[in-house]
Design brief:
The structure holds three protein chains of three kinds. Chain A is an alpha+beta fold. Chain A has helices at residues 7-27, 52-62, 117-127, 226-230, 235-244, 250-264, 271-299, 303-324, 344-369, 372-378, 386-391, 396-401, 408-411, 432-455, 505-516, 525-532, 536-540, and strands at residues 31-34, 42-46, 66-67, 71-74, 78-87, 91-100, 105-107, 130-132, 185-189, 202-207, 211-218, 333-334, 337-338, 472-480, 483-491, 497-503, 518-521. In chain A, helix 7 packs antiparallel against helix 14 (432-455). Chain B is mostly helical. Chain B has helices at residues 2-25, 31-56, 79-107, 112-131, 135-153, 160-188, 196-203, 208-226, 234-241, 247-269, 274-297, 301-328, 332-367, 378-381, 383-396, 403-416, 424-456, 476-490, 492-507, 511-515, 518-521, 531-539, 572-593, 620-630, 632-635, 664-687, 692-712; strands at 60-67, 71-77, 556-559, 567-570, 638-647, 651-660. Classes of the chains: A alpha+beta, B mainly alpha, C alpha/beta.
């Protein structure tokens, strides 16, 4: 870490000091503060579990920290729960809670920090840890129609490599319906729907006819237990998983994983690799956004514009393939750098393709802005206001369309983003059109960043060895195309992964989907879904 | 033949008396059998009496005794009243047999004997209303009928809501009765006696104002029973509250008495004017539309059928209105068609509505609920009942080959004949009313698709268990009605000439002359189409064979006027034959084509979810909600109390919304009128506060006013 | 809205000419490693060792590639002393191991094929590539191929993903719901062998362990044209080539 010198960084340091003092004053002996070597600016370990909710509320609401997620670890003698919080411009604060292994109840923080709701449900379902006062536990990742409660696959004693066929699913399971008007019913959608071209997930649209009162998603049909099967594998094998659980943002996730590993082994990245990584990150974002725009156009049945955006997306996929050898940028990242170098003419081709995409998107944006029938269908559809977005800690373009300007590239820069010139566009309306505008604006910023990155490429090494014998754990983060991605890796001395945790933007944002999908006309459902642009596979892992 | 009629009537009244005595005396365990057998017998005599009049076309008359000051009391069964008597007989026949099967469910340990006594008393009073040939007997029987209806509704007195429904009905009946009495008094002012012929003679001397007041008083007074806007708000309430055994009588008999009254008073005694016809047409169309709108959005089967009765009443009254308009403007043939259509529809409605109400009683007895949101999947449990119920639904939705189609087709055709009228404004009224009735017909299909689909198809949504204990014999009354529905639907050419006998004296023209070409009804040796018809067809660009198809008058033809030579034709009987041929051919072709293939039954495709739960299927409310949304201006739903229960702010646990809807009639009529009544009552109550000097002041003030008036005059 | 119409017209036809002529635009396919003869058996062993999923089998100086296992990680291509040969094609469709030939659908399907796609736990790449076939650049409708919304009208079941345990039931239900004369095509390495997810308590390790598979389109992900080739084979408009190594896979 560089020594703080600029005014901004000095202010961050004073912020941090003030926070640390305030925490010490409020919570006294309930907490103990320790310095951390995992990249955190502050590490708070909670001695009295009952203080955890109030501490989290203090950090999240009083100090305006962003909530990262929950990382649970099972150790032979104790449970370890990490709650990372991001203090904007200062860095990551880690709250840890250690409990004896025989304890099975944890205080729930989701009544204070609502964004923790699904994280707690996931931990409960997979580890069997019970969160006190959480209103709805169970039937989350392992559906009770297929699995019984009490199977906790993330426990160390659970053998993940064998099929687990001895199951007694809940025979009395009924769908949980929220709307209780007389005559209300639920329209089931999926998991196989839209001709399967949509990802596998299931919705219950609750209605009394005509208008949908509420839509609740049921995810985790695609749960492949990535975090579980990663345990016990080598770093290079887990890298394959990190890159392949969500292919449309493969590079961002593999980068977050690599950065976590690089942090464990304290590797300083060569400059060329850092710049190239930024170029590839932004290429992926640009391609993702072109695809998301195509999906939005398609959801409104504006076929020509959808085709226009889809062609741009395919051109970018081809450009990625020419540039790196893989259309989805697989197999490039390795801890310590990149596997493959690029040549000058490849860079020129890439810039040409990117500029072309930018021009196409500009044309499309102009056209769409004057298509009133298109705008009618997006405006005031699926609205999430700023308070709700903050409440649920929404990330990425969805959060930024509701006025949350949090972006890891600015808030806690990685890979050298702090040296780049770019803006984080955001809107305040929080409707479908705001989300579309954010996508357009961000893709233009990405083009700008790709140019800067390619221009700052200097000859030099692209890879430094990244290995060691020290056990350790670290958090890596990136701003994936859909928003904040956090990867937590813990390795032992042989370089075997003991715990791997991926907190994905889709997981965060699906939590907020039901807020946007209340009281809407049935035909708006695909539009709300498309403007959210969420991925089930990224959420399910 | 008169002796046959008289004898049948005598036997009818004797069996009614027997029924009353037996119900009161016989052990209550056998009440069902007593009501069933005696009732069926009585209704058979009823049908016999009316049939003999209808076949011969000769009225039956008998004088009873002379009532001091009113003249002689006479009974007269003319063709018009025998149409109504026949309808009542059919309904009573089915209802009596139905009682036998269901009386135990309905009453349990309470007193079926009392029910039996009132049942037969009502039967006799209904017959007396139709037989009365003078105002006093008519009014006395009418009052008896109203009070018996009230007693039968409140018979069970299980819930407070039911009781209030009965009282509302009683209040409305009495108000209607008063209006009718006043109408008769106005007529009787100049008449020599209160017998109907005398009143009829007196009516010809009535001024326009007097005519209008008699018409309005009679129309609204009888309209209470007929279920016309705006005096029908009691109807859905009482129908819902009434015992299931009794509703068929309500919907199939007493509702018709309202039409009988209107027809007798405003078309027979008083020759309704052009304006009164327009009034009736507009009121009928609005009644029909409002009735079907509420029926479509209702999910309680009984209440839905009640609203649907209002709709049908509207269609019948619209037909009556058209009849009055055509008659007063001199288009007698058109008026005959309109009245035939109205009478036909009255007959049809009584039959299929009885069928549907009995089917609903059946469903309720089997499942314990009549909420369509809770029902579903009955088709597999009760295939016989669902087939019969389907006939009722098809008939009421006016789908050929069942009877509803014939009468609705004729009603719409009668409205289309407005082309013959000279005034442009009345043509516009006809067009709007025709559109309203067409919309009504379309919504009726929606309504009964919903009813049938939500009740019998799909999966069981409620937590009820089917009892499955009724045997095939208990379904006989329903099968009887279903067969009548089919016969009335495929043989209208045999029914219309009979109805025509009732229509002819009123319309002063024959409908068969225009509707059913005379050569069909004439001797079968001359089966050549007249050249005028062939010319019409030719002018329209159509080719026609000159020979007529065999079968006595199986085609209904409606021939336009000379300047507008449009020919409408319909033959439900040939339609049935064609339908049968097409279905058989299709079946034959399909079986031939798929002879080599095995049929594979696969699970329902539901997007791959492990199981499709009943709460994931359409409910009746959901099915009809689009109608509710489209006609929001009429329903004016007031969605209140949108409770969104949440835990931890974002976490929805329950969304409950209460939808308050005030029926449009309650909103526009009952509440203002009721409010005004209450205001007057409060004012009067305020005057009577009991201080002596105040009363002295009232007397003084009154005296002064009288003096002033005296001076002024 | 006329400008959208003009906009569409002005862009002209952009669809590929495949299958009439081979499309070799840069980037349409990432290519795949092919059986390679090295100068020494050490190089072959190195190549085999570089593969994280044991898709390369060294036999003397030869290194054989099993397409159904290869995850296109390119570790045998970059950062290795002597790389495997890399072929930029996309006509990769092959038969599952043990199958001798593909019984084509009746001739009625050759001009029109309705495809039901099921995402059985896919990472998004294969699904995305399948979806690209609707893109004007590929425009599979011109060949009479359609994605259907219901299995009732489907002729071909196209499965992507390693079949997660929670999707096993829906996948089977979809297959059951399809009318007969139906074929199953596994698209992508995950759908063929489970790919990086392998076989675990949550992954069936490929469609083959759940359903009888008729055709396999390897690749991680297979590019759109490879999927299109699979559809052409399924409807009998292209002939499948039987690789010699197929039978050795997963033994």
């Amino acid at each position: 870490m560089a020594i703080a010198s600029s005014p901004g960084e000095r202010r961050a340091e004073t912020d941090l000091k003030a926070l640390s003092a305030a925490v010490a004053e409020r919570f006294g002996t309930a907490l103990s503060e320790s310095s951390s070597d995992k990249g955190y600016v502050l590490s708070l370990s909670v001695n009295q579990p009952e203080c955890l909710p109030s501490l989290c509320r203090f950090l999240f609401w009083d100090r305006g920290c962003s909530f990262g997620g929950i990382i649970a670890e099972e150790h032979p003698a104790h449970w370890q729960l990490y709650y990372p919080f991001l203090l904007a411009s200062a860095g990551w604060i880690e709250v840890t809670l250690q409990l004896p292994i025989e304890v099975a109840t944890v205080p729930s923080i989701s009544s204070e920090v609502h964004a923790a709701d699904w994280h707690e449900r996931e931990v409960e379902d997979l580890f069997g840890l019970h969160f006190e006062n959480h209103p709805r536990l169970g039937d989350f990742i392992l559906p009770d129609q297929i699995w019984q409660e009490g199977i906790n696959p993330m426990r160390k004693k659970f053998d993940a490599n064998q099929p687990h066929f001895e199951r007694q699913p809940d025979a009395n399971w009924r769908p949980l319906l929220v709307v209780q008007d007389p005559g209300s019913f639920a329209m089931p959608v999926g998991p196989v729907y839209e001709g399967g071209i949509g990802e596998s997930l299931h919705f219950l649209l609750e209605t009394v006819g005509e208008d949908v009162i509420r839509a609740s998603p049921r995810l985790f049909y695609k749960y492949r237990a990535v975090e579980k099967i990663a345990e016990g594998r080598s770093i290079s094998d887990v890298l394959l998983l990190a890159e392949r659980f969500a292919a449309t943002s493969a590079f961002a996730h593999s980068l977050a994983f690599c950065r976590a590993v690089e942090k464990i082994y304290a590797v300083e990245l060569p400059a060329r690799a850092a710049h190239l990584r930024i170029a590839l990150c932004e290429l992926e974002r640009l391609r993702h956004h072109a695809g998301a725009i195509a999906a939005i156009c398609e959801s409104t049945a504006l076929a020509v514009s959808a085709a226009h955006a889809a062609i741009s997306e395919e051109e970018l996929l081809r450009a990625s393939c020419v540039f790196t050898g893989h259309r989805y940028l697989f197999g490039l990242n390795v801890p310590g750098g990149l596997r493959r170098d690029v040549e000058l003419n490849q860079c020129k081709n890439l810039l040409a393709a990117v500029d072309n995409a930018q021009a196409e998107l500009r044309v499309l944006e102009d056209r769409l802005r004057y298509s009133s029938s298109f705008l009618d269908r997006l405006e005031d559809v699926g609205v999430i206001d700023g308070d709700q977005a903050r409440d649920l800690n929404l990330v990425g373009p969805v959060g930024r369309a509701s006025g949350l300007s949090c972006d890891f590239r600015k808030a806690c820069p990685y890979s050298g983003y702090e040296r780049y010139q770019f803006d984080v566009p955001y809107e305040s309306e929080g409707d479908g059109y705001a989300r579309l505008r954010v996508l357009f604006a961000e893709s233009l910023q990405s083009v700008k960043l790709i140019h800067q990155a390619i221009e700052s490429l200097e000859p030099g090494p692209l890879y430094v060895p990244c290995e060691g014998t020290t056990p350790g754990a670290a958090l890596g983060w990136t701003e994936a195309p859909r928003g904040a991605a956090l990867h937590w890796v813990s390795v032992d001395e042989t370089g075997t992964v003991e715990r791997y945790r991926a907190i994905t933007p889709s997981f965060n944002n699906w939590l907020g989907f039901h807020i946007a999908a209340e009281d809407f006309a049935f035909q708006d459902f695909p539009i709300i879904l498309a403007t959210f642009g969420l991925s089930a596979t990224e959420c399910d892992r | 033949m008169a002796s046959v009629t008289g004898g049948a009537l005598l036997l009818f009244f004797v069996s009614c008396a027997c029924g009353i005595l037996l119900s009161a005396l016989v052990d209550q365990r056998h009440s069902g059998v007593v009501i069933g057998i005696t009732g069926a017998l009585a209704s058979l005599f009823m049908m016999l009496a009316s049939a003999s009049v209808l076949v011969t076309g000769r009225s039956f008359e008998a004088s009873l005794w002379v009532l001091q000051g009113f003249g002689p009391l006479t009974l007269r069964l003319d063709v018009l009243s025998s149409v109504f008597l026949l309808t009542a007989g059919i309904v009573y026949f089915s209802a009596s047999l139905f009682v036998r099967n269901f009386i135990d469910d309905q009453f349990g340990a309470s007193y079926p004997a009392r029910y039996g006594v009132m049942y037969f008393a009502l039967m006799a009073s209904v017959a007396l209303i139709l037989l009365a040939n003078d105002a006093p007997l008519f009014l006395i029987s009418w009052e008896c009928m109203s009070i018996l209806c009230f007693l039968l509704i409140n018979y069970e007195q299980r819930q407070q809501a039911d009781k209030s429904a009965g009282y509302i009905m009683l209040a409305m009946s009495e108000a209607g009765f008063l209006a009718v009495v006043i109408a008769f008094l106005i007529l009787g002012k100049t008449a020599v006696s209160f017998s109907f012929p005398a009143l009829g003679m007196a009516a010809s001397g009535l001024s326009n104002r007097g005519l209008w007041s008699v018409f309005l008083l009679g129309f609204l007074g009888f309209g209470v029973k007929a279920g016309l806007i705006p005096v029908n708000f009691w109807l859905p309430r009482s129908y819902t509250a009434a015992p299931s055994l009794f509703i068929p009588i309500f919907a199939g008999v007493t509702l018709n008495l309202g039409f009988y009254g209107i027809l007798r008073l405003n078309a027979d005694l008083v020759h309704g004017s052009y304006g009164t016809g327009v009034f009736a047409l507009v009121v009928g169309s609005i009644t029909a539309l409002v009735g079907i709108l509420y029926a479509t959005t209702e999910s309680d089967m009984k209440t839905m059928l009640a609203h649907s009765s209002i709709e049908n009443a509207g269609i019948i009254v619209a037909g009556l209105g058209a009849f009055l308009i055509y008659r007063s403007s001199g288009h007698f043939v058109a008026s005959a068609i309109a009245l035939t259509a109205a009478l036909y529809h009255m007959l049809n409605h009584s039959i299929y509505k009885t069928l549907l109400f009995q089917g609903t009683a059946y469903v309720e007895a089997e499942t314990g609920t009549r909420d369509m949101d809770q029902l579903g999947g009955l088709f597999r449990l009760l295939p016989g009942l669902s087939a019969i119920f389907l006939v009722g639904c098809l008939a009421i939705s006016a789908v050929p080959p069942f009877n509803g189609f014939v009468s609705e087709w004729m009603t719409l055709q009668a409205l289309l004949r407005s082309a013959v009228l000279s005034s442009a404004s009345i043509k516009i009224v006809f067009a709007l009313c025709g559109a309203a009735l067409a919309l009504t017909a379309a919504l009726a299909v929606t309504c009964f698709v919903k009813t049938y689909a939500m009740t019998f198809l799909g999966v069981r949504r409620g937590s009820w268990e089917p009892k499955l204990r009724t045997n095939a014999g208990t379904r006989f009354p329903l099968v009887f009605l279903a067969v009548v529905c089919l016969l009335l639907g495929i043989l209208p050419t045999y029914v219309i000439p009979i109805l025509n006998r009732a229509v002819e004296p009123l319309a002063e023209a024959s409908a068969t002359a225009s509707l059913i070409p005379p050569f069909f009804t004439a001797n079968s040796s001359n089966q050549e189409l007249p050249s005028a018809f062939l010319q019409d067809f030719h002018n329209l660009g159509a080719q026609s064979a000159s020979k007529v198809l065999p079968g006595r008058g199986l085609v209904i033809l409606l021939r336009g006027s000379a300047e507008n030579p449009v020919v409408f034709a319909m033959s439900p009987s040939y339609g049935l034959a064609a339908l049968a041929i097409m279905l058989l051919t299709a079946w034959f072709v399909i079986t031939r084509l798929t002879r080599q293939r095995a049929t594979v039954r696969r699970e329902l495709w539901a997007g791959g979810i492990p199981r499709l739960f009943p709460e994931m299927t359409y409910t009746a409310t959901g099915f009809s909600n689009p109608v509710r949304v489209v006609f929001q201006a009429i329903f004016r739903p007031n969605i209140t109390e949108d409770t969104r229960q949440t835990v931890a702010v974002h976490f929805r646990t329950a969304i409950r919304r209460r939808r308050d809807e005030t029926h449009v009639i309650d909103r526009l009529f009952l509440r203002p009128v009721g409010g005004a009544m209450n205001g007057i009552a409060r004012f009067l109550a305020g005057m009577h506060h009991g201080r002596l000097n105040a009363y002295v002041a009232y007397v003084l003030g009154f005296l002064l006013i009288i003096l002033f008036l005296y001076r002024a005059s | 809205m006329s400008f959208w119409f003009l906009h569409g017209l002005r862009r002209g036809i952009q669809s590929t000419r495949y299958p009439r002529t081979l499309d070799s635009a840069p980037g349409v396919s990432p290519g795949h490693p092919i059986n390679t003869e090295f100068s020494s058996s050490g190089d072959a062993r190195d190549a085999a060792a570089s593969c994280p999923v044991d898709a390369i089998l060294a036999d003397g100086r030869m290194a054989f590639v099993d397409d159904g296992l290869c995850i296109h990680c390119q570790r045998c291509r970059f950062g290795i002393r002597s790389p495997m040969n890399w072929e930029l094609g996309y006509e990769w469709t092959e038969l599952p191991p043990g199958r001798k030939d593909y019984e084509t659908l009746p001739s009625a399907f050759s001009k029109s094929l309705h495809v039901m796609v099921v995402d059985a736990g896919d990472c998004g790449a294969c699904l995305h590539e399948v979806k690209q076939l609707n893109n004007p650049l590929y425009n599979m409708h011109r060949l009479g191929y359609f994605f259907t919304a219901t299995p009732r009208t489907a002729d071909l079941l196209l499965v992507v993903g390693p079949v997660s345990e929670n999707m096993r039931g829906p996948l089977l239900k979809t297959y059951e719901a399809m009318p007969d004369s139906k074929r199953v095509m596994a698209v992508g390495t995950c759908a063929i062998t489970g790919g990086v997810f392998g076989r675990s308590f949550m992954c069936a390790g490929g469609v083959g362990s759940v359903l009888p598979v008729d055709l396999e389109v390897p690749g991680n992900p297979p590019p759109p044209l490879a999927v299109l080739h699979g559809l052409l084979v399924a409807s009998g408009r292209k002939v499948v080539t039987i690789g010699e190594l197929v039978s050795r896979r997963r033994s």
